[in-house]
Amino acid sequence: MDEYQRTLHALIEYRILAAEDDGAVLPETEKPVEPGEPYEGVARLIRLLRRVGDLPADAILEDPDLYQGALVTAVERFQRRHGLDPDGRIDKATLAQLNTPLRFRVHQLELALERLRRRPYDPSRSAIVLNLPEFRLRAFRQNHLDLEMKIVVGEAPERKTPILSSQLEMVIFHPYWNVPVKIERDELVPEIIKDPSFLSANHLEMITPEGAVLHDPVSDDMLPKLRSGRIRLRQTPGPKNVLGLAKFVFPNQYEVYMHGTSAQWLFDRARRDLSHGCIRLEN
């Protein structure tokens, strides 16, 4: 079953679930609900998680007033599916997802289907598919899953990674990072002002419009040129380079691309919308 058919099947199922659900809202608490604690929303939580399939119908629940056992495991499964840290705690982020009406999930699936209609791809051809809400990449060859990995995508909503379709054009090994002007102005120049050794410590070079490397220390006269982009910054290849070992280029109007990263610890997070818009690859 291809991605379109799976999404269509999920839409049909969720339309039924939304029609059957009573729409009750789980009560808020001052502090996160921890496993083993009493919670007045246990009955609703059981109904909801059974309905969406995270809690098996035959799960044994010993105390109807305590949040424990199989119910905690079901919440962890729910958290994992929704890009949350699967710690079993019912905190504000988890409660917000649990209280999202199923009719809204129906609308999300309808939008996903429409995107698939507008940007179809032939599953029999080789393809790299990025599932942005899931923070995962899958590579297919002749309809066979060849590769799967975690990704980091653009921070929502201001820097979210755009939805697009393109063709991989080039792979650059040991790339330079040419710092975008906005990042240079808003993030790096303040660091340079605070610490004159910031450039050398982070293997950054100053580049003139002609492409020459400036070896002079940063002076007060240079700061306006750095802020305006008349002098550009670039990071040399190496273990500290933010693009990692490779950069994957595909033509698009948004100037985004895929690349490695020196910040591998970010892949330990469940929610990974952390970049400026480009896609960081786990491996």
Automatic annotation (TrEMBL):
Top-level lineage group: Bacteria
Molecular function, one GO term: transferase activity
Residue span, L,D-TPase catalytic domain: 126-283
One biological process term in Gene Ontology: regulation of cell shape
Keyword Transferase: yes
Keywords of the record: Cell shape, Cell wall biogenesis/degradation, Peptidoglycan synthesis, Transferase
Positions annotated as active site in the UniProt record: 259 (proton donor/acceptor), 278 (nucleophile)
Pfam families listed in its UniProt record: PG_binding_1, YkuD
Gene3D superfamilies: L,D-transpeptidase catalytic domain-like, PGBD-like superfamily/PGBD
Pathway: Cell wall biogenesis; peptidoglycan biosynthesis
CDD domains named among the record's database cross-references: YkuD_like
Family the UniProt entry places it in: Belongs to the YkuD family.
Protein name as annotated: L,D-transpeptidase family protein
Organism this protein belongs to: Candidatus Acidiferrum panamense
